[in-house]
Amino acid sequence: MENLSAYPLKYAELTIKAKEGRILEAGCGGGRVLRYYKNKGYDIAGMDFIEEAIEKLKEADPDLDVEVGDITNLRYKSESFRYVLAFGLYHSLERGLEQAIRETYRVLEKQGKVCASFRADNIQTYLTDCLTDYRLQKGGRKADPNMKKRFHKMNLTRSEFINLFESNGFRVESVFHVENMPILYKFGFFRSKNHKIFNENLARREGYKLSFLGSAIQQFVMRYFSEKFCNIFVLIARKP
Question: Which domain holds residue 95?
Fold first, then answer.
């Protein structure tokens, strides 16, 4: 990843304040954050539940410290990491969410920090899901009523997200309302010039860039109605 002003790297940078100490990226996926910090000389490990993702990372860079793992049952010793990054992970758990948070707490050092995201339960998420269903139907495909249950298992409100971590021992320091992919980005008209033709790799690498008009609209709603029009909450919390 290249864009330091975009999610998730922006929030990883707000969390990781020192080069000393080990980092775990839980749910590292394609490794865009993992490889950024590894290339900067940080001591970072990655784990993901999907074996294919880990195999591809090892092929791309055999020196990466990555492995297949389960966030609800980590193999790492207690207090192994100063930082844990978990972007787009917890809301994809079908079961064991509380256990995942407890495992995150266990592997962190005292005074260590976690930076995590969770899908927001708000108007933006509702509109996005409705738009997805509409496009499926327009394309002649029937929306699967179980699709949302299989992927993005849960949405949480801001207060529910905070309570999830505080009830498992963390002290929440910050919560951000983040538009990872603005709903306007789903319409080519509102995208920046080099993003008109959708390219997922480009969008993830640079952030979901909007045109001047799209940016103006997005900035307005995020300034005055951010809790309702973000699509994820990002939390930074400390282990006492």
Answer: 9-238
Q: Does residue 24 lie within any of the structural domains? A: yes
Domain-embedded: residue 106: yes
- CA 70 from centroid of its chain's CA atoms: 17
Q: How many CB atoms lie within 10 A of CB 40?
A: 10
Alpha-carbon gap, residue 132 to 138, rounded angstroms: 10
Residue ranges in the chain whose pLDDT is less than 70:
139-153
Judge whether 28 and 48 are in contact, CB under 8 Å: yes
pTM: 0.84
pLDDT in tens, 122-173: 998 888 878 877 777 776 665 555 444 434 457 999 999 999 999 999 999 9
For residue 92, give the CATH number of its domain.
3.40.50.150
Q: Is the peptide bond before 8 cis (omega within 30 degrees of 0)?
A: yes
Helix axes 97-107, 158-166, angle to 10 degrees: 50
For residues 80 and 107, the answer to whether their CB atoms sit within 8 Å is yes
Has residue 3 been placed in a domain?
A: no
Q: Which two tokens stand for residue 124?
A: 């933006």
* 15 closest CA partner among 111, 91, 85, 108: 85
